[in-house]
Every structure is written in C-alpha cells, then in structure tokens.
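Structure (tokenized):
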C-alpha cells in the first residue's frame, strides 16, 4: 500500500512555505520537484504518485509550492519580483533545510529552469530532469526576445497580459472548476488534474475563494523570464534528461533541441503531447523519469 501525499509547512528564514511530501522508509537520495508558473505542487499529485509507485514507495518525494503559488505564505508582492533567482534561492533554501546529503531534482517549465540553475550550484544533486523547460538557446534569439519584451511586444507579453486578466475570485471550489473547465491552458487537462490544481491553489476569503497565485504575480513571473538561459548549461556537470512535447505549445524549440544536442551530452526525448506533459500524460512521463533515475 502506498501512502498519500502529506501536506506540510516549513519556516524558512521567517517565511512560511507549504509543500507536499511522499514519505518513504528512508530519506536517502530523495527527489525534489518544482512546478510551473501559476501552478502548484498539488497540480501534479497524479504524476508524482505514479513516480512514487515506480520506485515501490522507497524514494521520498518533495514538491514545493513556490513563493506566490499554492499554499505557501511567503511574501509575494509582484513589485518586488525582479527575476527567477528569487525562486532559485527559495528552492535552494528548501533543499538545504531538508538536510539531505544527496538528491535528484526535476521540474516542469519554469520549475525545469530553476532546477537546472540549482543543479549548477548544489553539489548534492546527482541527476536533473527538465520537463518542457523554458529554454532559449543562443545569443541572437535571447537578444531578439529581450528587445521585444522591452517594447512590450511578442508572445511573452501576450501570455503575461492574459495572466494578469485572469479571473481571481469565485463563490466556491465548484464554481471555479466550472469556470476553468475546457478553457485556455486547461483545455486538455483531466478533470481530476484541474480539481487538484484548484484545491492546491485556492484560499478562502470572506466572499468565497480566491486564487492564491495572484494574477499580477503570475504575470510578473512571465515577464521576468530570462532569455539567456543557455549560458548556465555549461555549468551543469551531472546527468540530465530533457523531456519535450511534440506540439507547437512546447517551450523547448527544435532549434534549442538541436543546439543542446550538439553542445551537451544531455539525454533528450520527445513524446506526444503539449507543454503540460506531466499533467496530461502522467504515467508515460513517470515511467521515462523513473527509468532515467534508475540507471
């Protein structure tokens, strides 16, 4: 019998962070997982549960609600968010607080990039998994996108604008589920995944419930994406695995794939699906990651 995820809180330097915890008989070499922008650890419960089972419940899994997301209660004033280094610093502090000697780390989208940056700094990390990383591959592309952001044009600005306009408040969980079902990024999500996302991402208010990830915080996260992520790849000296979706929504482009394949010895695999691989293809993604980690 496999235990369900436990919800816990931790005080890190005076701020409260929430996380999901799949406990095993040993805390030796656990797996840390970091979620995508606007989502939360609970969104991935089905995927993480299946990954836990792939190891017969013998590897502990930690999934952090990043600052401004999920049930974490750390300060999240969007005016203070300057870059994803904030998420990187929080995750490093979280891993160190767990007191582990070694671990593996995985992340989705933004969480993949944060995981990669951490892997280039923490010697205790043995293996890295990047699922649909927001990875820009060379100077020319990064410079072009930076210029577009400066003038507030292009896909990044549109995504940020959409996030800022997202409806935030609802009467209850049921009305939130009804509102998001079949809409935008949730179009192909299983019903259970949407429910998990909202249960892990709504807070009670006097009027009902509200998204805990404030739309302005989410928008600022999109706005502060780094366009020179390719630079730190050279500092990663551990085994790394990149999972790429086949659809146009992939944030790991063919050009990026070609560049990384030539420059680095990372394992790269493409599978059928969208940017939300670990949500829409839970078992397949869990199997591929487990196979990689077991080698």
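Design, position by position:
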């Amino acid at each position: 019998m496999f235990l369900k995820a436990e919800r816990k809180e931790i005080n890190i330097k005076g701020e409260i962070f929430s996380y999901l915890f799949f406990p095993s008989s040993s805390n030796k070499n656990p797996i840390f997982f970091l979620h995508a922008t606007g989502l939360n650890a609970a969104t991935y419960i089905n995927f993480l549960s299946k990954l836990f089972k792939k190891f017969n419940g013998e590897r502990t899994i930690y999934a952090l609600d990043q600052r401004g997301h999920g049930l974490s209660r750390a300060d999240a004033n969007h005016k203070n968010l300057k870059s994803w280094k904030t998420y990187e610093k929080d995750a490093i502090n979280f891993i160190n607080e767990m007191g582990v000697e070694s671990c593996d780390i995985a992340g989705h989208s933004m969480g993949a990039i944060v995981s990669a940056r951490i892997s280039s700094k923490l010697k205790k990390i043995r293996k890295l998994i990047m699922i649909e990383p927001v990875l820009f591959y060379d100077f020319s592309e990064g410079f072009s996108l930076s210029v577009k952001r400066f003038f507030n044009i292009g896909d990044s600005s549109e995504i940020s604008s959409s996030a800022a306009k997202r409806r935030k408040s609802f009467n209850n969980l049921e009305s939130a589920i009804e509102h998001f079902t079949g809409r935008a990024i949730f179009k192909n999500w299983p019903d259970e995944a949407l429910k998990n996302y909202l249960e892990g991402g709504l807070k009670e208010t006097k009027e009902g419930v509200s998204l805990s990830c404030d739309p302005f915080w989410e928008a600022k996260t999109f706005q502060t994406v780094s366009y020179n992520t390719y630079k730190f790849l050279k500092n990663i000296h551990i085994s790394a695995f990149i999972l790429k979706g086949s659809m146009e929504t992939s944030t790991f482009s063919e050009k990026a794939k070609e560049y990384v394949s030539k420059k680095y010895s990372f394992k790269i695999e493409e599978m059928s699906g969208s940017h939300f691989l670990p949500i829409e293809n839970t078992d397949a993604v869990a199997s591929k990651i487990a196979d990689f980690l077991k080698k």
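Reviewer-requested clarification: Residues 41 and 65 are 5 Å apart (CA to CA). The first helix runs from residue 45 to 54.
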